[in-house]
Amino acid sequence: MTKHSTDLRTLLRDPSLLETRAFVAGEWVDADDGATFDVTNPARGDVIAKVADLGRAETARAVDAAEAAMKDWAARPAKERAQVMRKWFDLMMEAQDDLARILTAEMGKPFPEAKGEIAYGASFIEWFGEEAKRIYGETIPGHMADKRITVIRQPIGVVGSITPWNFPNAMIARKAAPALAVGCGFVARPAAETPLSALAMAVLGERAGLPKGILSVVTSSRSSDIGKEFCENPKVRKLTFTGSTEVGRILLRQAADQVMKCSMELGGNAPFIVFDDADLDAAVEGAMASKFRNNGQTCVCANRIYVQSGVYDAFAKKLAAAVDKLRVGDGLEEGVTTGPLINEKAVEKVEEHIRDVLDGGGEVIKGGKRKDGLFFEPTVMTGVKDDMKVSTEETFGPLAPLFQFETEGEVIAKANATIFGLASYFYAQGIGRITRVQEALEYGIVGVNTGIISTEVAPFGGVKQSGLGREGSRHGAEDYLEMKYICLSV
Ligand SMILES: NC(=O)C1=CN([C@@H]2O[C@H](COP(=O)(O)OP(=O)(O)OC[C@H]3O[C@@H](n4cnc5c(N)ncnc54)[C@H](OP(=O)(O)O)[C@@H]3O)[C@@H](O)[C@H]2O)C=CC1
Ligand SMILES: O=C(O)[C@H](O)CS(=O)(=O)O
């Protein structure tokens, strides 16, 4: 029998969603050696669950089961897969509050934001369930009179998935949905900080009718072991990862031995540019949404805020006033807008970036200090320069650093001067400027007069060292398909 902190279990309408065993080959299992690891609530520091701590042997069994289950699952009519995925979507939305409470308890984001993530994650399951029926092939006029050419697209095979703690539901859904929709087997390894959301998704996936073995959730504190199993197991045909660029590089090197197809959603360093013809109130609203969503812990958060000199002081003042309205606290409490950071390392990163700006002559105009535990004051700083750490490193926390610029050419060059290329944002009104800037920014995503770009219908992904491939939209299915060219001699 596994142990839970009663406060979380009593918060749930359906306590059976709080699963702490791993889901392997269609069975709920403990680790072979009975090992567990603790999951803590970052807002309170208390242990909320002890979760099965699996290793490579259990992961290999999950891969075997996924390969076996694929034979039937991929052969089913797409409509049947779509019906199971629709049921999964419906069950997730019916359980939205419970799934959100589990997510808030293990990751810290405020309950309303966690509810939003559940809907966002479920939207991928809904969208790709529908897309399953539209995986078309093509016929090509033959190159010789007796040749007939067709192209078909088939599921790539067993997928290994590694995801981070910052979106413990949506990042798995954004990968599992297209993979399962096209007929792949899927083995998910969630971050050790946040396994409960993934396990709850599997509980509902099983109830929705996903066949035994097609989906496994391998919970483990030994992330590199599981990553090695995915990269070295010949039955795994695809690796999909969301996380830091540093870990992405490690996995790409490991996957190279089998020339494994990889999707990589990696780090960002998003510029957020406010031109002097911007609607300043709209720009402040967009900056708040982009910078402070998930307490700044997203790969698409504004990391550098560039403000043209004519509106710099006015924007800084308005942003500081908006930040003042944020309420830091335990995400399970009513009215809290900003939860804790995920761990001590995250707090130290924010402190390091603030100290570096102060040492360089910048100043804090709002916040700037750690609160108790893992809570941190949402912070705005002015006088930030290009040679400071925050200019090249992802803060991944609630720090809004304001850089001043004079000309369009200057800010484009600065915005592009990074190894990253995931999301970027700018606020302007002149159509000529909008057209020039959106084309000049070297990023996979450009938000124009908006600070939120995340949706299941669009291709999400980065260029340069922010990643490989796209997630969401019809392009998101391509990463889980192989193309086969058939030449028939008649
Ligand atoms: N682009 C994005 O969406 C994200 C970017 N980041 C960036 O990464 C930084 C660190 O955050 P963090 O969560 O530690 O991100 P990591 O990249 O370190 O971790 C992401 C996932 O990879 C796993 N992992 C870590 N090392 C390995 C390995 N050698 N082999 C296989 N899996 C591994 C982690 O497991 P475990 O946690 O159990 O070690 C986690 O599940 C952030 O500050 C941010 O800059 C982080 C999250 C998302
Ligand atoms: O990893 C992340 O930060 C997410 O990909 C950001 S989003 O897709 O939720 O915007």
UniProtKB/TrEMBL annotation:
<dbReference type="Pfam" id="PF00171">
    <property type="entry name" value="Aldedh"/>
</dbReference>
<keyword id="KW-0560">Oxidoreductase</keyword>
<dbReference type="GO" id="GO:0009450">
    <property type="term" value="P:gamma-aminobutyric acid catabolic process"/>
</dbReference>
<dbReference type="GO" id="GO:0005829">
    <property type="term" value="C:cytosol"/>
</dbReference>
<feature type="active site">
    <location>
        <position position="265"/>
    </location>
</feature>
<protein>
    <submittedName>
        <fullName>Succinate semialdehyde dehydrogenase</fullName>
    </submittedName>
</protein>
<dbReference type="InterPro" id="IPR029510">
    <property type="entry name" value="Ald_DH_CS_GLU"/>
</dbReference>
<feature type="domain" description="Aldehyde dehydrogenase">
    <location>
        <begin position="28"/>
        <end position="486"/>
    </location>
</feature>
<dbReference type="InterPro" id="IPR016162">
    <property type="entry name" value="Ald_DH_N"/>
</dbReference>
<dbReference type="InterPro" id="IPR010102">
    <property type="entry name" value="Succ_semiAld_DH"/>
</dbReference>
<dbReference type="GO" id="GO:0004777">
    <property type="term" value="F:succinate-semialdehyde dehydrogenase (NAD+) activity"/>
</dbReference>
<dbReference type="InterPro" id="IPR015590">
    <property type="entry name" value="Aldehyde_DH_dom"/>
</dbReference>
<dbReference type="InterPro" id="IPR016161">
    <property type="entry name" value="Ald_DH/histidinol_DH"/>
</dbReference>
<dbReference type="InterPro" id="IPR016163">
    <property type="entry name" value="Ald_DH_C"/>
</dbReference>
<dbReference type="InterPro" id="IPR016160">
    <property type="entry name" value="Ald_DH_CS_CYS"/>
</dbReference>
<dbReference type="InterPro" id="IPR050740">
    <property type="entry name" value="Aldehyde_DH_Superfamily"/>
</dbReference>
<comment type="similarity">
    <text>Belongs to the aldehyde dehydrogenase family.</text>
</comment>
